[in-house]
Write a structure and sequence with these properties.
Blueprint (H helix, E strand, L loop, with lengths): L1 H12 L2 H27 L7 H16 L6 H20 L9 H6 L5 H21 L3 H5 L5 H34 L8 E3 L4 E3 L2 H30 L2 H22 L17 H4 L9 H25 L5
Antiparallel strand pairs: 1-2
Helix pairs in contact: 1-8, 2-8, 3-4, 6-8, 6-9, 6-10, 8-9, 9-10, 9-12
Protein name: ABC-2 type transport system permease protein
GO molecular function: ABC-type transporter activity
Organism: Planococcus citreus
């Protein structure tokens, strides 16, 4: 299996497109940091200081806590936000500015949508390209079971996603340090009973790992489509379409019970820590179960199709 994965990894990086995606990712992240710095340098000073902003955050959190429709996760989130705002105002603990290394690292998980996009391209084509290039016969004539071949391709796709996620995290940290430097402020967390100072690196890493759930599921979906239909263009097109439209459908379906079992209701696991939950009464455990079921369905379809496919023609 390790040799199969190594072979697939070498094949992946022998393509110019893979290197182009890596360079493009770095260029986009560099441009994002540069544009943010330019906006900061050309924009007028904010009209409100951080204390006024924290008072607004406190009032907003207290208003949300009065809402009877919020779920348990949102209840915990807004209780924490209110406690943190009160602590900052009482102890003169300034938050990080947006234009700082710390805040850019904390917000870096939002850029992982780029990793999802590139993973879709790789996952959709890693099997389909074998058919389009006519190399599938040579691949399957080797004395290796089909399920091992497909597994090596899937693992290679996920390793690609992991590598690009690490590259994104490191690039954001580096470019933020170059453009903004280390800012003043304190990162505070609510542990359920008191406000304490935490590590923004650990928080950023946690949010990034949770964001990879979307990359994992959409990448797996693209992998399945590429395996079933043998068309990378179809798999890429459908996956990217759902990547952008799927979340919007959550809002259209939120009045119906079926939305709780809809894939894109659960792909963003950061919602349990950011307070933005379109469907308030779901839980982390439920999301993990739903994602696991979808994953198993996608993989069963992929393996069954690949193992039964006739490639003699």
């Amino acid at each position: 299996m390790l040799k199969l994965i190594q072979n697939e990894w070498m094949k992946l990086w022998s393509k110019k497109a893979t290197w182009i995606m890596a360079v493009l990712l770095i260029v986009i992240l560099l441009a994002n940091a540069g544009i943010t710095k330019w906006i900061e340098s050309t924009s007028p000073a904010p009209e409100m200081d951080w204390q006024e902003m924290e008072m607004m955050n406190l009032a907003s959190a207290e208003d949300q806590l009065q809402n009877p429709d919020i779920g348990p996760a949102q209840q915990d989130y807004y209780e924490g936000q209110a406690a943190i705002a009160e602590y900052r105002l009482a102890n003169d603990a300034e938050p990080f500015k947006v234009e700082s290394l710390q805040q850019q690292v904390l917000d870096g998980h939002m850029m992982l949508s780029l990793v999802t996009l590139f993973t879709v391209i790789v996952g959709a084509g890693i099997v389909a390209s074998e058919f389009s290039q006519g190399t599938i016969k040579m691949l399957l004539t080797r004395p290796v079971k089909r399920w091992k071949i497909l597994t090596s391709k899937y693992i290679t796709t996920m390793l690609f996603a992991l590598l690009f996620a690490i590259l994104t995290f490191v690039s954001i940290a580096l470019f933020s340090w170059i453009f903004f430097g280390v800012g003043d402020g304190a990162f505070l967390v609510w542990n359920g009973s008191e406000v304490v100072e935490g590590s923004y690196w650990a928080e950023a890493l946690k949010l990034s790992v949770l964001s990879l759930a979307s990359t994992w599921m959409i990448g797996t979906f693209a992998f399945m489509l590429g395996t079933v239909f043998r068309s990378s263009s179809l798999a890429i097109g459908v996956s990217i379409f759902l990547m952008f439209v799927g979340v919007q459908l959550v809002f259209l379906l939120q009045r119906f019970e079926i939305v709780k079992y809809y894939l894109f209701t659960h792909t963003d696991l950061t919602q349990f820590y950011t307070g933005f939950m379109p469907i308030p009464d779901i839980t982390m455990a439920m999301s993990l179960i739903v994602l696991t079921v979808y994953f198993l369905v996608f993989m069963v379809i992929s393996y069954w199709t690949f193992s039964k496919r006739d490639v003699t023609a």
